[in-house]
Amino acid sequence: MTTTEPRIRSGNEWLSAAKEVAAELAVNAAERDRKNETPYAEVRLLKDSGLVTLLGPVEHGGGGQSWETAYRVIREVARGDGSIGQLLGYHYLWAWAARLVATDDQIAAVEELYTRNDFFFGGAVNPRDSDLKIAEDGDEIVYNGHKSFSTGSKVSDLTVLEGVLEGTEDHIFAIVPSGQDGIVFHDDWDNIGQRLTESGSVTITDVRVPWASAAGYVDKKFHPLTYNTLNVPAIQLVFANFYLGIAQGALETALAYTREHTRAWPYGGDNKPSAGEEWYILDGYGDLQSKLWAAEALVDKAGTAISAVLHAPREELTPEARGEVAVLIAAAKQRVIDTGLEIGTKIFELTGARASATKYGLDRFWRNLRTHSLHDPVAYKRREVGAYALLNELPEPTWYT
């Protein structure tokens, strides 16, 4: 579907749209998790709601919104389905990839292309694998190789590739159509959580890209900016937001179950007529809700901070400002992981034995958060914060910081 009509909404209206999507996803989230089918319908829902083009330019039919709003939208969608929240968050990051590293002309072309056509992004950029190999062939570069993970794969319209030009140490990003013979998705994603993210492996064979589309390259040369390194803090906060959404969805679902089904314990000597009057249940939910509110406040603080630099002129970002944002995001990420995993476990103590029935799917929240939070060791995030607090050291840009 091609669109040029601006989707002009306030930030609150975009959040309302995200809540509507989340509510629809939540209805059968447990069932869809069990089936583990490619989420074509779910991505169509994201497109129809306009959320896919939330960051796109208004003149091409996009929302023209800030990253601060985008992060909250990711979180809301993840409340309904953690997998779809992850897909949307990765899409936003890859849709912004051109702004991170490309030239002004390349940015304009990519943003018009995806916004007008409601295109959805995936990415084959896993730093722990060997880089894709890039060969130069006249006015084109040619990608070849294999990646273990390619989130979004079969549901994407566009795929972000990254590799190293042979004979150099030059990394080159490019955005290519997903539906082509040279890109083969292997349908081998079958993990315990985030099951609908289409994050399986991919083989790239002779995918050709004009040198003119090599992101950020002018006359085959790249001119780096500190802004280029914001891709990692930006996606780390994507993680924190869909983790937060998963944790919120877990607590929300557990509270609803307790209201409707949990029975008071009749053998404690201080018998109550309803579960809502049980002191240990009230104590437990009070503890979890307080911790979740605290994590949310820290995630929101980080979102405000990085949004400000993502939308500022690229040339103005300093390494120091980048480092301050990165360490704040590291703190937010570790806090929401710890809180979310605790919620995913303790809700069973508060809902009761019958809540463990498969039909309720309460286990999916822990499985989803546990699976993706292993993306990179959270201990290193704690170390980054510790080095900042004790030694006043800022994180150095890497593929994971």
Automatic annotation (TrEMBL):
UniProt-listed Gene3D superfamilies: Acyl-CoA dehydrogenase/oxidase, N-terminal domain, Butyryl-CoA Dehydrogenase, subunit A, domain 2, Butyryl-CoA Dehydrogenase, subunit A, domain 3
Keywords of this entry: Flavoprotein, Oxidoreductase
PANTHER family xref list: ACYL-COA DEHYDROGENASE, ISOVALERYL-COA DEHYDROGENASE, MITOCHONDRIAL-RELATED
UniProt-recorded name of the protein: FMNH2-dependent monooxygenase
Any one GO BP annotation for this protein: L-leucine catabolic process
Organism placement in taxonomy: Bacteria, Bacillati, Actinomycetota, Actinomycetes, Pseudonocardiales
Origin superkingdom: Bacteria
Pfam families (alphabetical): Acyl-CoA_dh_2 (PF08028), Acyl-CoA_dh_N (PF02771)
Domain Acyl-CoA dehydrogenase C-terminal: 237-375
GO molecular function: 3-methylbutanoyl-CoA dehydrogenase activity; flavin adenine dinucleotide binding
